[in-house]
Amino acid sequence: MLDPLPQSFFAREALVVAEALLGKQLVHGEVVLRITEVEAYRYPSDTASHCRMGRTQRNAPMWGPAGHAYVYLCYGMHSMLNVVTNAEGEGAAVLIRSCEPVAGFSLISARRGGKSGPVTLTGPGKVGAALGLDTGFSGHALFERTGLYVADGAAPSGVLVGPRVGIDYAEPAHRRAPWRLAVVDSAWVSERAGLRAARSHVSQAKVRRVPPRPRPS
What stretch of H or E contains 27? Predict the structure, then answer.
């Protein structure tokens, strides 16, 4: 049986955790998925983040402590899984955008309407469906073997980086920021447009501060 990662793994800056999550495994019952694509939503001034307007009832899990799930409903139908990061009180998380199946293939296919191949899991709503998630999982501890958790896995041979998807409401600097990361040699990636090979590991390059909101003239 796979062991969950410790809570300390998640208690780091969102972009560092985002890279570290690539290749790790999501476990929920018989379903095991390898993480292949993620997006970082950072603290303190990321205008694409759900925390940009402060704490709300919905985004409360995103404010920590780290290592918990933040699951929200998109378009009233898609359950989107985020992994909470950073220090408690710093609203930040990593969205799981795409995965590759490792175990539980029949159940995954059934939950995804009989689909097979990368289309089954290339998109955050598809990942949530394959894992059988709903918003009741928001706040769930991902570092304990109680239902859904994150386990170790082989790191990818390389990482692709590019801008995040579907954040037209954010400031231009945050729309352009290369905070979407994917496994370099995987077919299980939702949006290849705009991705490029990283020159160095994100975590080794140290994390730049979140570009601030422009000041009014």
Answer: strand 25-28
Q: Is the pTM of this model over 0.90?
A: yes
| pLDDT means over runs of 10, the chain (217 residues) | 96 98 98 98 97 93 97 86 98 98 98 95 98 97 96 97 96 97 97 87 56 50
- CATH value of 7-156 in 3.10.300.10, 3.60.140.10, 3.40.50.720, 3.40.50.300: 3.10.300.10
CA 26, CA 28: separation in Å to the nearest integer? 7
Whole-number Cα distances in Å, 101 to 83, 130, 149, 201, 205: 19, 9, 15, 25, 30
Q: What is the pLDDT of residue 154?
A: 96
Residue burial 73-93, b: 16+ Cβ < 10 Å; e: rest = eeeeebbbbbbbbbeeebbbb
Residue 93 near residue 14 (C-beta atoms within 8 A): yes
Which amino acid appears at position 169 of this protein? Y
Q: What ranges do the domains of the chain cover?
A: 7-156
Distances (CA, A) of 173 to 38, 82, 169: 19, 22, 12
Helix (H) or strand (E) holding 40: strand 31-41
* Alpha carbon distance 154, 147 (integer Å): 22
Structure-token match 């390389």, residue found: 158
